[in-house]
Amino acid sequence: MAARILPVLKLATKVTIAGGALYVAVDYGLLGSSEQGSQALEKAKAAIPPALEEWMKYFGVELPTMPKIEFSPVESWNSGVRWTISSLSEAPTKASDYTNQGIQYLKDLTK
């Protein structure tokens, strides 16, 4: 009987953890717009340093100071998608340019 319950218990634990992570991500706005993501980043920036200090005092560990990172998710949101679409839109022109260069190179070799 225990051999049948253990896999179900493991699956239930995994589903609970995944569901909790998804709930937290939606609750903090991580899956929303870029503005919501930026607000979530600001909340995290405000909450993480005090929590780290508390844990450092509790465990008696000394960590180096955290570097200041100036990153705006609003400005870089989907920049990879934009770059990819831009490259794909330029691909036919670039292909014809490279083809013409290759033909000219071959003509110069055969002279």
UniProtKB/TrEMBL annotation:
Indicate where this protein is primarily found. mitochondrion
Give membrane topology per the record. Answer: Single-pass membrane protein
The Gene Ontology CC terms held by the record are: MICOS complex; mitochondrial crista junction
Q: Which UniProt keywords apply?
A: Membrane, Mitochondrion, Mitochondrion inner membrane, Transmembrane, Transmembrane helix
Any one biological process term the GO annotation gives: cristae formation
What PANTHER family does the entry give?
Answer: MICOS COMPLEX SUBUNIT MIC13
Q: Which family does the record assign?
A: Belongs to the MICOS complex subunit Mic13 family.
* Function, in words: Component of the MICOS complex, a large protein complex of the mitochondrial inner membrane that plays crucial roles in the maintenance of crista junctions, inner membrane architecture, and formation of contact sites to the outer membrane.
Q: What's the protein called, per UniProt?
A: MICOS complex subunit MIC13
* Organism for this UniProt entry: Amphiprion percula
